[in-house]
Structures are given as structure tokens and as C-alpha cells.
Amino acid sequence: QSVLTHPPSASGTPGQRVTISCSGSSSSIGSNYVNWYQQLPGTAPKLLIYKNNQRPSGVPGRFSGSKSGTSASLVIGGLRSEDEADYYCAVWDDTVSGPVFGGGTKLTVL
Amino acid sequence: QVQLVQSGAEVKKPGASVKVSCKASGYTFTNYFIHWVRQAPGQGLEWMGIINPIGGTTSYSPKLQGRVTMTRDTSTSTVYMELSSLRSEDTAIYYCARGVEYNLPEDYWGQGTLVTVSS
Q1: What is the reported pLDDT for A94?
Q2: Looking at residue B10, what is its pLDDT?
């Protein structure tokens, strides 16, 4: 069982804004930065957001991240059909001295 | 260009061991840590451990401690992950990924290696 909590699913229509949350604890999100990964069906995860709100080169600006206290959020603006994927948050957890991943949120574009 | 290329799929019997390789190219091998992350069928991502290519120091998930061993060969820029005493629950896709800090996997991931444990 993950120590990071995601909603298992989310959905939206093209053009909509969708928010995916990730809830942790004082020893995880409360103390360390969060990364977000996108996993398209049948492919390896791809880094989407690093250090809470930084976008790697090539990631569109409609993806943004934020962190407050023991929670983090990924916002996808202007939803597109190709955004249909699984999204995971990850953070270093001081309790286990290693990274932990959220259980993942399956995003459906209606 | 940066690449992490993993070895091919494996089928193993319960109790056996498996060794998966991850060959790095396109960057200075010793500048990045390598993580191993696995994903059981239909499940989420699970961190297995990390290796520092400088010196080969490792840190493993408490869940897998005692069964997992990560090593590296700097002459070939290759990292290895060996998992022993395999059971059916170890059936998964195994990924390597690099990270510049001793923290989270980052920008480049291997293509994944499917390990199937079945009698």
C-alpha cells in the first residue's frame, strides 16, 4: 500500500483543465520535493514535472505542478486526447530512506 | 543521445534468480545514479533500489533487502540488477532510470524488461 494517495481515476473533455492530487505526510511531501511522471499505455514512465513545479525540456507548458504542505498537485490545462495516460507522483520518504510512488491516477479524455 | 538500453525478457521458475542489465550511453556514466523500478501487471510503480556508479554503493527497498543486488561495470557503463528467490509476485516489468541526485528517478528511463516467474 502506497504512502502517497492519488485518486485512482480522473477524466475530462478536450480543452478542459484537470487537476490530479497527491497526498503524503510530513516525512515525505512535507520534507522533500515531488516529481510527476506520465505513463502512456505500454511505455516506460516519462518525467513530466520535477522539483515540484519544474518542467523538463519538451514538456508542454499546459502541464504544471505545485506543492503545499503535505500535498502536491498536477494540473493539465487544455486537455488533449494524447494526455490519456497514467500519472504518478513520487517523493523521497525519510522513513524508508528511499523514493515512494503514488498508486497512480488513470486519466481518461472523454 | 542519452539512452538506457535493457536486456531482453526472461522467464524463470520460482526459486531461481534473474539478472537484468541496463547499458548507459550518451552521457558520462559516473555523473548519474541509477534507480531500478518495477511494475507488476496492471499495478503501479515500485522503487527497488539505487546504485551510485562511483564506488558502486547501493541502497535497497526494505521490502526487497536480502533478495536484490545491484552492481555496475564502469568499463562498459552497465548496471545490473539481480533478484533472487523469485516468486510469482515478482512477475513484472523492470525499469532502470537515471537521476542526477541521490533522490528520485529523473529524465531517462530504460525500455523495460519483462520478467515472468512461472512454474
Answers
A1: 87
A2: 98
